[in-house]
Amino acid sequence: MKGWGKIFVALFLCLFLIINSWLPVRGANIPVGIDELKVAINTQISSAEFLICEGQYQLVCPITQYNFGTFSKDTLFIVVPVGNDSLQITINGQPVARLAGNSLLLKPQDLAGLNVFKFQGKRFRDTLLIENFNGKLNVINIIGVERYLYGVVGAEMGSNAPDEALKAQAVVSRTYALYHKENSKNGYDLGTNTNWQVYGGYDMEVLSGQRVKNAVDATRGQVIYYDNTLIQAFFHANAGGYTENSENVWSAVIPYIRAVPSPGDLYALHYPAQDGGWPANTYQWTKTFTLPELAMQLAAYNSNNPTDQVQVGNIVDIKISRQGVNPNSSPRGYLPEETPSGRVTELEIVGTRGSKTFFRDGIRSVFGLRSTLFDVFFDSTVEVLAAAQKAIYNTGDKLVALGVNGLAEKLNGSNSYYYVQDIDGVKTIPKTFSQITFNGRGYGHGLGMSQWGARGMAAQGYNYLQIIQHYYNNNNYDGKLNIRVYSGQTK
Asked: Which of 148, 198, 218, 240 ranks highest by number of CB atoms within 10 Å?
C-alpha cells in the first residue's frame, strides 16, 4: 500500500472510532451476569416514576458513567425522555440540570442486602434500568435468577400447592427464563405477564411466603436439558386429562413435548371452589353464545385482528376436525388418526357469504376459549341414523320427511321448528340455531407440564423430578433429557 493510502486508512479508522464513541449505547447492550435476567416491567411509556423502598441505591448513567448520587429510602424519581437519546431526571420534585444519556441505572450499593424499589404500585428487587427507546421509555428490572423466581413460582403454581409441585414449577420456570435469556431478541429477556410467565416482583414474593422461597432454594440452579441444550419448558394451567404433541398445537415437532396422560388434572375438581368456579373450571368449562353475543364476539375479534378478519356473513355452521398434524408432509397435512388428547386442530366458520378456517392454537382466540379440547353444540343440532351410520346436522331447514305417500315434505311445514322423538320423549328443535355452546376441558395450550396435573401428582406422592420426567420425557427413553445445575450459555 502506498504511503498516502496508509495515512488515509489510519485517518478513517480514527474518525470511525471517534464517531462511534458518540453513538448512544442502548440499555439493551448493558451486560449482566450469568445469573441475572432483564425483565421488562413496562415498555414504550411516556414517563417513569419510581421510589426507593429499601436499601441504598446509586443512580448512574451507564453511557457516561456519571453518578448522580447515592439515595436512600423514600427518594422519589421521575424520568422522561428528551428526544430519542437523552433522559430528564427529577428527584424529590427537583429537576436535575444535567441530562442523562439514553440509559439510566438505579443500582444497589450492596446486592447482598435487601434492595427494593416501587414502580407503578408494585415493589421489585435489585436493579432498575430505564432506557430511551425511540422517544419512549423501556423499564427493565435486572434481577438475579433465584430472586426472580421468588416472584414467579407462587404467582404461577399457587403458593398453597404441595411442596413437590412448587419445586417442579421452580425448575421449569428457571429453565424457561434462562432459555429466553439465551435467546433474547427484544433487548430484554422476559416480560411479566402470561405471554411469558407471570412475575409479581417483591410483592408476590412476600405474598407467596416462605414455602415458595424454600422450593426455589431447594432446587437452586437446576434446569432441564435435552441433548445438552436448555429445553423450551412450556407449561399451562390444566391439560384437561391429557397433554398434546407440540405440532398439533403450534408448528414445530419438539421431541420432549409429546402427549402424555395427565390424570392429576382432576385434582382441580376436588379442590375447594373459589369465586368464579376456579379452580374446577380449569378442568371443565362451558361457554355459550346467543346469536347477538356471537356477532359481538366476532366483531371484537375483527377489531383486534385487522389483518385476519372473519367476514362470512351470517353464521350457519361451525365445523371442527381433530386430525393430528403430519409433520413429515409438505405442505403440512394431517394424519388419519385424531390427536392423542382429542384437541381440535381445524375449525371452519361457515356463513352465508363464505367461510373462514382457523388452525391449532389460533382457534382459541376467535371465541375466547380456554383450550382447543372442546365439542361444539347448537341448539338446532340433530343426529340422523342411516344405514347404521350417524350424520350430524346443525341446521334443519333443509331436512325433509317422507310422508305415507312417499313424497318428501318439509319438517313441520314452514314453521321455524320441528319435533323429534328420542328416549326422553318429544323435543322441539329449531331449524336454525339461536345458541351455540362450547363444552371443553383444560386451560391453556396443553403443552408440557400441566400445573394442576403437577399438583395432583405431588398430592399422590410423586417428587418434583418424577413430575418433570413425566411431562417432558414420558415414553421417550433416548437418555437425552436430564436435570442439572445451569452452567451458562449452551449455544
From this structure: 240
